[in-house]
Amino acid sequence: KTYPFQLASNARRAGKTVLLDLDDPDFDLTPRWMEKIRRVMQLAHGVTTGSGYLKEKLEQFHPTAHVLENPVDVTDPQVFYKGTPWRGKSVWFGAPENLWMLRRLKLRHPVQTLTKGGDIPYKLKTVDRELCGFNLALLPVFLNEETLAKNANRLVKCAALGLPFLAS
What is the pLDDT of residue 27? Predict the structure, then answer.
């Protein structure tokens, strides 16, 4: 429900990629509210949103920003990947029913799983911090109608955190 114009403006001036999660159901509440959204959209490279309706509306504000119908859900804005030297720490970040995809890769180095019932249990409050402790996130997904959104959601979350990832 906030539109961080100054934060986005500073990031854009610093040459950083600006990703926003604009998932406001009161999108067209007032002309003033819509102007706030339009202003912050002008600074975005990419935007996520939670419905086709909002995606369509947001695309009108900035035709060159990439708008994905998918929430980022970065819960702690102070958490981001700090670009640590390669330590070989890889994480598989996916739904537990898709672990077979990781096993099928037959990787030589160990990969921890961040998922319900995995090496690191998925918890909404700590997932960002957990992810940023790795050097690389693996997002292998057999793409079909059910998995497309899940893969994009995890990919966008890693991008928002600045964590390098390898995705199908």
Answer: 67
